[in-house]
Amino acid sequence: MDAADSPESEFSYDEAYALLNESDMFSAEHSDSEYAVKRLLNRGYLYEADGTLRITETTLD
């Protein structure tokens, strides 16, 4: 099973913000996690479907 197909690869915006806020790399400011999610969406690492965020499937050659 690919990581993008696992149940952990689908989450709400609030869950994504909470995960990022738990990281030592982000401050507790909600705006930092919002910015990070926007960047991940813009760069194609995440996509939105049916109101949830999903991890983009990656293939390694």
> Spans of 5+ residues with little confidence (pLDDT < 50)?
1-5
Q: How would you sum up the major sheet?
A: 3 strands, antiparallel
Shape: globular
Distance between the termini: 17 Å
Number of helices: 2
Average residue-wise pLDDT: 80
User: How many discrete domains?
Assistant: 1
Instruction: Tell me the number of strands.
Output: 3
Strand-and-helix sequence, N→C? EHHEE
Strand order of the largest sheet: 1-3-2
- CA radius of gyration is 12 Å
Query: Helix coverage percent of residues?
Result: 25-40%
Secondary-structure class: alpha+beta
How much of the residues is beta strand, in percent?
15-25%
Which short descriptors sum up this protein?
disordered N terminus; 61 residues; 2 helices; alpha+beta; 16% strand
How would you sum up this structure, described in words?
- This protein has 61 residues and is of the alpha+beta class.
- It has one domain.
- A 3-stranded antiparallel β-sheet has the order 1-3-2.
- The protein is globular, with a radius of gyration of 12 Å.
Layout of helices and strands, plus pairs?
Layout: E1 10-11, H1 13-22, H2 30-42, E2 46-49, E3 52-55
Antiparallel strand pairs: 1-3, 2-3
Helix pairs in contact: 1-2
Task: Write a compact overview of the structure shown.
With 61 residues, the protein is α+β, with helices and mostly antiparallel strands. It has helices at 13-22, 30-42, and strands spanning 10-11, 46-49, 52-55.
